[in-house]
Structures are given as structure tokens and as C-alpha cells.
Structure to design on (543 residues):
């Protein structure tokens, strides 16, 4: 064998040498520094009052302010965990149903033609208008309060999964299909051995979008009056008391953003573990 | 007494299109292929050589005429897994390692892994991929990918190998080496091989018989018996008879072109 082989080792750029981590950390610090300069700079330059844009120190201070139930950061983390739970339930329901809908649409063209407009319409309806109806509706049926939030999260989650997985299932190339035909494969075999694995990278793209969307959905569900727990409730409180305590609203926003990033990161991590057949990106 | 041909093509035509615009990809093609032959279909683009291969494989259906593969209609032959097909692109599944790609037909056909593993290993060794079982397609060169796809086509031991310009995308050096390897495979396995190419030299080097095809409409212009002795090697390409045969095929194509322009 004289032919050259690209070994996996040579091209492996996913290794984690301490040096790489150091550079990454430095990058984050520089980016944060830039944001801080622009933030405080524009505040000074345009004389922006605190209730519109607080000092970064005020936000930091808000995290550590004591409350009757403990320091603010601890309360926010507890609320964030509750939101994460609602979002996770919604994400699971939405992803599974989205996947099943996509598989159904792929298999039966007529079903797709009939139902696709409704799937698209479901996402053009402003969720902020529908959310209170879902919250009140499920509440009057005696469902636990978190369920309505999960339903809204699922509602925002299923759509990207349907669209991307459908694309993934159809992404197989013509010869790959003809190959299966040459083996006299059944439709189920073609689905299981060809379409399904081909759709996995698309699925992960969808799940990354869905992960952040599910957090947004859960937060939107927490906004209507009557909700008692969750980071969304703290956002509402924060905007009500913004004039007195301008750092707090931003603290809740930061926690909500971190929650979305963690959700995204977890899916990205799962993708790296599962999709191992791809050429590493340099 | 001659045995029944393994592939019989009788006045086959394939016409694409609708009532307004039609393309005659193949017109009245007849050909019989004996068991164990290595036949090349050679000709310029649009001569219908790939179409003919796909009709035999039941990946397409003739508009007229009849095809028999190992005594069966193409559809039945396909369902009985009589042939292995090799495409121009290796068509490996990205998410499967070399070994699992080669095992794909066995999985589809429900053949017991234990019984067939030895054959699978043998086929991968035969195409020179013994040490690459666990590699993913992106880790292989183009030539190695195509070797994997040949191992896959042979893994379930079909009687016929249908190859659609399998080395067309490779550089000339790799292609010549692959030609040698294909002849080795043919001599070891005694398969009937039907090989589509647009390279006259490749056709002469490989085949026991060449079917020369011409376009508009696609049809057989001539068949040329290649009387170069097997086993063939790198010296074969320098044999005066090799050049005579190349010239003979080229002249046939030229006449057809001159006659039609």
C-alpha cells in the first residue's frame, strides 16, 4: 500500500492542551474587558442614568445583596433551576414530537402537504399572546403550575426540530438510495440504516436551537401574573423595581442568558460525543 | 453446447421525457454476456452505457425490449441479490467505518454476521484494506474509498459485478493500479464483470470483450474481442497488440462520429 493515508491523529485539532485553554480564557477576558469599556464608556459619554443602564459594579453588587431567604445569587440560581426543569421537560416533549412529525412528513408526502402550513402557522402566532391562555387553561384543569411552562417550551421547541430533521432525512444522496435499492432493502431498512443516521447532524443543529428556545419558552410562560417561581418571575420583579434597584434586573437577565448558554453547551457536548464520524473542523 | 448467457439483452430501448420532448437514451440494444466474462461498455458521454447498466440492475426500467439476468427478470434478479453495484462515487456512508460499510449489504440481507465475517475480512484484505477496518471514509484517499466500495459489492458474494465508471474520478496512476487489482479480483473470484468506462485504454486493458457504444441515440456500434492473454500486467500496456486494439476501438468511434456530424 503506497497510497497516503490521512491519519486521525495528525488532523486532530480537538485536543485540549493546557496552552489552548489558556488562550481561550485570555480571549474571554479580553472580550469581557472590551464590553466593559464600551458599557461604562457610553454611560459616561452619553450620561445614561442608572435606571436605564446601571454600572457594572451595581450589577455585581445586586448579586450579593442579602434577602430574608439568603443572598440574591442563591435565590436566582434556585429560580433558574426551576426554569431549567420546566424547559427540560418542554425540550424533551418538543424534540420527541418534532422528530416524530418529521419522520411522518418524510414518509407520507400527502400528510406533509396537508399539515405543513399549520406547523408554520403555529410559529407565526405571537407566543406572548398565546402563553397566558395556556397558563390559565391548564391551571383551571388542575395541572401543576410548571406544566403550562413546559407546554410553551415544547411549543417553541418542536418547530426547529421538524424543519431540520425533515431536511436531514431528505439529505441522502441519490446513489446512496440506489445502493439500498440494489440490495432490495425495505422502506424501514432505508429509514433505519440510511435516512436516520444521515439526519443526526441536522438533528443536533435543531436541538441547539431548540435548547435555547425551550428556555425562552419557559421564561415567557412565567411572565403572566400568578406565577410564583422561576427566573421569569424574577425578571418581572426586576423590571418593576428597576428604579430603586437598577442592578437587579440585569442580574436576572445575566442568569437567564447563562441558562440558555448552558443548555446550548450541553447539546453541543452531546453532539461531540455522538457525531464522531465527521472530519474534525480546523 | 454453450450454457445459457448470464445476461441477455434483447432489443432494449430507453426513452426519457414526455409527449413534448423525448430523449432516446438507448435504441434497440441487443447483447448477450456469458458467465465469467469481463465486458467493458465504452463510449462518449450520452451513449447510454450507464443507462444500460442501470437497466440491468433494475435501477431503471426499459421502455421497450427484454432483459434477462441469470434467467430472471431484472427486478427478480435484484431481489435475489444477483449483482453487486459499484458507483462512480464510492457512496460510502459517512457514519460507518470501512468494515461496517462493507457489512451494510449483509445487514440489509439479514445474513448471519458470524458466518459472513470471514468472507468480509477476506474481501477487505483482497482490496488492501486489512489495516483500515476501523477508519471512517473521510480518513481514506479516493482510491481507498473506491476499494472499500468494491469490497462492499463483493461481501455478499453476488454472481455479477456491475461497475459504473468506478475509477473515473481517480488520477491516472491510481487508476492503473486499481485496474491491476480489479483483474486480480476477477481472476480470484470468477465473477462476471460489466464495466462502464469512457477510457478506451482502460477498456482494452481490462476486458475480454469491449462493447463500443455511440450517442444520439445510444446504441452498440461494434463489439471487439480482446485477444490479449491473461494474466495481464504493466507490460501489456506496451504490447503492440494493445495499441492496435486501442486504435481499432478509436476508429470505430471516429467512423460513427464522422458518419453523424
Amino acid at each position: 500500500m503506497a497510497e497516503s493515508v490521512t491519519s486521525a491523529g495528525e488532523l486532530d485539532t480537538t485536543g485540549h492542551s493546557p496552552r489552548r485553554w489558556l488562550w481561550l480564557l485570555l480571549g474571554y477576558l479580553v472580550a469581557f474587558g472590551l464590553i466593559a469599556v464600551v458599557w461604562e464608556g457610553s454611560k459616561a459619554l452619553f450620561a445614561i442614568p442608572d435606571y436605564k443602564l446601571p454600572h457594572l459594579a451595581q450589577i455585581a453588587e445586586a448579586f450579593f445583596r442579602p434577602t430574608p431567604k439568603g443572598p440574591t445569587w442563591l435565590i436566582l440560581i434556585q429560580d433558574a433551576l426551576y426554569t431549567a426543569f420546566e424547559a427540560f421537560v418542554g425540550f424533551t416533549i418538543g424534540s420527541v414530537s418534532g422528530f416524530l412529525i418529521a419522520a411522518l412528513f418524510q414518509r407520507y408526502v400527502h400528510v406533509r402537504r396537508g399539515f405543513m402550513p399549520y406547523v408554520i402557522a403555529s410559529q407565526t402566532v405571537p407566543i406572548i399572546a398565546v402563553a397566558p391562555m395556556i397558563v390559565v387553561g391548564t391551571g383551571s384543569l388542575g395541572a401543576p403550575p410548571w406544566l403550562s411552562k413546559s407546554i410553551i417550551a415544547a411549543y417553541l421547541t418542536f418547530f426547529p426540530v421538524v424543519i431540520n430533521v425533515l431536511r436531514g432525512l431528505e439529505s441522502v444522496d441519490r446513489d446512496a438510495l440506489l445502493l439500498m435499492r440494489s440490495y432490495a432493502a425495505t422502506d424501514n431498512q432505508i429509514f433505519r440504516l440510511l435516512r436516520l443516521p444521515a439526519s443526526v447532524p441536522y438533528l443536533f443543529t435543531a436541538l441547539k436551537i431548540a435548547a435555547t428556545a425551550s428556555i425562552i419558552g419557559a421564561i415567557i410562560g412565567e411572565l403572566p401574573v400568578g406565577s410564583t417561581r422561576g427566573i421569569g418571575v424574577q425578571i418581572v420583579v426586576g423590571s418593576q423595581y428597576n428604579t430603586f434597584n437598577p442592578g437587579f434586573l440585569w442580574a436576572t437577565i445575566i442568569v437567564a442568558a447563562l441558562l440558555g448558554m448552558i443548555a446550548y453547551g450541553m447539546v453541543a457536548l452531546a453532539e461531540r460525543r455522538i457525531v464522531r464520524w465527521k472530519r474534525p473542523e480546523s | 453446447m454453450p450454457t445459457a448467457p448470464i445476461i441477455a439483452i434483447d432489443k432494449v430501448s430507453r426513452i426519457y421525457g414526455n409527449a413534448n420532448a423525448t430523449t432516446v437514451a438507448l435504441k434497440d440494444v441487443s447483447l448477450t454476456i456469458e458467465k465469467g466474462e469481463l465486458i467493458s461498455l465504452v463510449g462518449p458521454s450520452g451513449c447510454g452505457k450507464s443507462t444500460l447498466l442501470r437497466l440491468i440492475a433494475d435501477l431503471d426500467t426499459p421502455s421497450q425490449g427484454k432483459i434477462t439476468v441469470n434467467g430472471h427478470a431484472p427486478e427478480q434478479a435484484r431481489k435475489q441479490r444477483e449483482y453487486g453495484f459499484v458507483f462512480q462515487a464510492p457512496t460510502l456512508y459517512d457514519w460507518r467505518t470501512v468494515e461496517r460499510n462493507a457489512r451494510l449489504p449483509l445487514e440489509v440481507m439479514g445474513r448471519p454476521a458470524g458466518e459472513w465475517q470471514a468472507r468480509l475480512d477476506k474481501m477487505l484484505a483482497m482490496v488492501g484494506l486489512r489495516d483500515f477496518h476501523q477508519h471512517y471514509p473521510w480518513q481514506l484517499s479516493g482510491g481507498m474509498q473506491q476499494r472499500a466500495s468494491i469490497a462492499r459489492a463483493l461481501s455478499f458474494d453476488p454472481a455479477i459485478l456491475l461497475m459504473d465508471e468506478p475509477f473515473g474520478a481517480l488520477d491516472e496512476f491510481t487508476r492503473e493500479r486499481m485496474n491491476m487489482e480489479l483483474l486480480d479480483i476477477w481472476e480470484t473470484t470468477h465473477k462476471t464483470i460489466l464495466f462502464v468506462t469512457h477510457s478506451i485504454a482502460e477498456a482494452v486493458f481490462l476486458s475480454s470483450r469491449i462493447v463500443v457504444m455511440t450517442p444520439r441515440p445510444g446504441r452498440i456500434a461494434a463489439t471487439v474481442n480482446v485477444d490479449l492473454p491473461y494474466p495481464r500486467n504493466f507490460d501489456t500496456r506496451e504490447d503492440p497488440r494493445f495499441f492496435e486494439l486501442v486504435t481499432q476501438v478509436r476508429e470505430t468511434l471516429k467512423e460513427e462520429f464522422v458518419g453523424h456530424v
